[in-house]
Amino acid sequence: MTTDTIRTSDGSDLVQPGLLPELRDRTVDNLWRRAVRSKPEGTFLLWEGNEFTYAEADVEVAKASGMLRDAGVTPGTRVAVLLDNRPEYIWLLLAIGRIGAVGVPIHAEAKGQLLGHFLRSTDCSYGVIASSQAANVESVLGEDLLGYVWILDDVPADEIGTVPRLGRVQEPYAPKDVADDGKDDEHRVPRFSDNYLLMFTSGTSGPSKAAVVSQAQPITHALKIAESCGWNAQERFYTCLPLSHANAQCHTLLPAIGLGATVVLGRRFSVRKFWADVQPFDCTAVSLLGSMLQLLWKKAPSPEESDNRVSTVLVVPFPRNVQEFDDRYQARFATLYGLTECAPVSISRPGEGYDRPAGMAGRILRDHNDVRIVDADDIEVPLGTVGEIAVRRHDPYITVQRYYGRERETWDDFRNLWFHTGDFGYVDEDDVLYFVGRKSDSLRRRGENVSIRELEEVLQSFTGVLEAAVIAVPSDLGDMSEDDIAVYFTSEDGTQLTAEQLDLLAEAELSRYMRPRYIRHVDDLPKTPTSKIRKDVLRRDAEVNLTQFFDAETRRQI
């Protein structure tokens, strides 16, 4: 271990051993047992009036491990987990790590084709499924049952009726006390390099890919963040993001375990109740998606948002007006750059980088990875020049190993021995990384390159606009190198903003080449289970429903 001087969330310096264990010791069970040994009576989890110490939680992990092992789960066995946020989800993630099995976390709101894709593309033979999700699973499985299924009752039986058969063997989720969960069996001790999770990428531009994640990868991700943010054992981490998502796992759950701190778990994100959920538990650190922060910003201030102990907000991407957020919420903001495949690549300390240009994603972690900005031929571009962000780790097994069943995509993304992120960015003279946008999220109009992310930020700043999603549509000029701009938008509660009114706002605020041509108001935007907008769905809709848009050039509905 190394010794670092870091700044804690209350602003004081703290000298402590580096949180990251040696690489070969980075297994989920090693990290968990270290926390249990050091703070057995410390509070680990708070959830809806329930409190678990580390010792009490360890009993639950042992019971879950025993249940899985008794059913035949062994190292490498794939186990789907389809639950809402609840303590059992955490016990299962830790038990799967203890056994050396492979967890397949699936968002609890997944349904239809997306749910079928998650289950079929990962060849799961075991599953822990909420009773509220059983009908959705049955609709996509048909007669192709899983091998072994546990049903966890999460709603009263009279609300859902009879639970359908989803597995050839099906039992209630009811782990029993065990005298020995196999912890001393040397053949069952996982290694840092073993596969641990199949984590789905967001799938905003097409079908999600299952990233094969080793035991060492999420631990490295989590504890590099904890070190950079200066978090300590007194933190209370709040998350309402789904535990199927890397954010909840690596920005909240695993940092808390690594520090021996406390997790406060919410069921789901609510704009109206967010600060009311955070305030009573004296939470000190929260991690948010950028879209969540913008929605909170648009909500009228509440007493809870100013009367709380939150001192650090980790948010991706960094908001443009971050100082205003700091002033309103009285918390220091930090950000990072990373993906499911590898994170963090760069990170800022809380309170740093407020005066830097838009897209700031923190200083590159040069002790952790190499970063290059490359052109279309994979040749490195000069400092300050925009290109694709490519990453190569210093240590093995802390980057995604491959995409499960998707060899071609694996080779494409790891060509020339660098992981190609698919993101545009640049590096400045201070070695700070800037995110510019997705390669697939830019367009060219009237001879000018348009950043879709930048355009969406401007549109969302307009009064009355809740969310805006911009896509490229073919130009009717017949020039294949040119695009037209289409935007879908939703309105804030209590407003009646029309497509024509949005066009007038855009005309007043935007350069002509950035002004959307096609504008459509919708009640909701299609999203992934992690709340990212499904641009692939919007593109398909625009192909067949362009007549439902307002045309800014003709000033009328098409």
Itemize the secondary structure elements and their pairings.
Layout (H helix, E strand, L loop, with lengths): L2 E5 L5 E5 L10 H11 L4 E5 L2 E4 H17 L7 E5 L4 H13 L2 E4 L6 H9 L5 E5 L3 H8 L4 E7 L4 H4 L6 E6 L22 E6 L9 E5 L1 H14 L6 E4 L6 H14 L2 E4 L8 H5 L6 E5 H9 L4 H4 L5 E5 L5 H8 L2 E3 L1 E2 L8 E2 L12 E5 L4 E6 L12 E7 L13 H7 L5 E9 L4 E7 L3 E4 L2 E4 H9 L4 E10 L8 E9 L7 H11 L8 E4 L13 H11 L4 E2 L4 E2 L1
Parallel strand pairs: 3-13, 5-6, 5-7, 7-8, 8-9, 12-13, 12-14, 14-15, 15-16, 27-28
Antiparallel strand pairs: 1-2, 3-4, 10-11, 17-18, 18-19, 19-23, 20-21, 21-22, 22-23, 24-25, 26-27, 28-29, 29-30
Helix pairs in contact: 2-3, 4-5, 7-8
Structural account:
The protein has 558 residues and is of the alpha/beta class. It has a domain at 444-557: GMP Synthetase, Chain A, domain 3, CATH 3.30.300.30. Helices cover 28% and strands 27% of the residues. The protein has 16 helices and 30 strands. It has a 7-stranded mixed β-sheet, sandwiched between helices. It has a 7-stranded antiparallel β-sheet with strand order 17-18-19-23-22-21-20. Strands 6-5-7-8-9 form a 5-stranded parallel β-sheet, covered by helices on one side. The longest helix is centred in the N-terminal third of the chain and has 17 residues, at 54-70. The model is unreliable at 1-16 (pLDDT under 50).
